[in-house]
Amino acid sequence: MTTSVLGVSATSPRARVHGVAEALPPGERVLWEGAPQPRALARHLLLVRPLTTYFTLMVGWWVLANVSRIGSAEFWGPVALQLTLVAVVIGGAHGLARWIAASTTYAITDRRLVMRLGVVFPLTVNIPLAYVQGAQARTFGDGTGQIALQLDPKEKLAWIVLFPHVRPWRIGRPEPLLRGLEDPAAVGAILRRATLGE
């Protein structure tokens, strides 16, 4: 079964991955193609919810500590400034999440995993399926999830090149991470069938 969430044909002699200039070799098929969900990146990569909670507590604490001045400009001026800064930080995080999602494409073919990455300097990472030794999927409470790939040591990848599409704290042996997946179980099933050659 062929799935393409970005509308890329997987049956043409020279299939293409969205955003990648070079076509795939003749006969190679795209089994799945997608991109991270911005809201999932905001929540699970940029930690918008903990940030929002932290800023809410800080502003609330300041308000309580200065409640005696609630009727003066000395109270409302700092409150307005704090709320503006919070809006800038949280809004910036959401904007960055959308930017990362728009510049990222994940694709699984019958021969490789393709990752188009890079907000400022786009690059394409090709990982042959023969080098994929295992995968670990994780589903979050909002239904989105991620898949970390364990690779053969012969596949040398730099952690900084993959960031932020890499599992944290695995710097010595980086594990590519498909982030912000809308249906991680379905993507994992496609990846498993592809690695087994089914």
Characterization of the model:
By secondary structure, this protein is α+β, with helices and mostly antiparallel strands. The protein has two domains: 30-36 and 106-196, PH-domain like, CATH 2.30.29; 42-100. It is 36% helix and 21% strand. The chain has five helices and seven strands. The protein has helices spanning 38-44, 48-65, 73-102, 159-162, 184-196, and strands at residues 30-34, 105-109, 112-117, 123-128, 132-139, 145-151, 177-181. Strands 1-2-3-4 form a four-stranded antiparallel β-sheet. The chain has a three-stranded antiparallel β-sheet with strand order 5-6-7. Helix 1 (38-44) crosses helix 3 (73-102) and helix 2 runs antiparallel to helix 3. The chain is elongated.
- Could you give the order of strands across the largest sheet? 1-2-3-4
Biggest sheet details = 4 strands, antiparallel
Beta-strand fraction estimate: 15-25%
Uncertain regions: pLDDT < 50 for 5+ in a row? 1-11
The number of distinct β-strands equals 7
Secondary structural class: alpha+beta
Instruction: Count every helix, treating DSSP H or I runs of 4 or more residues as helices.
Output: 5
CATH architecture of the largest domain: Roll
CATH top level assignment of the largest domain = Mainly Beta
* Number of discrete domains: 2
Mean pLDDT figure: 89
Q: What fold name stands as the CATH topology of the largest domain?
A: PH-domain like
Gyration radius over CA:
21 Å
Range of helix content: 25-40%
Which H/E pattern describes the elements? EHHHEEEEEHEH
Relevant terms:
198 residues; alpha+beta; PH-domain like; 2 domains; 4-stranded antiparallel β-sheet; 3-stranded antiparallel β-sheet; 7 strands; 36% helix; 21% strand; elongated; disordered N terminus
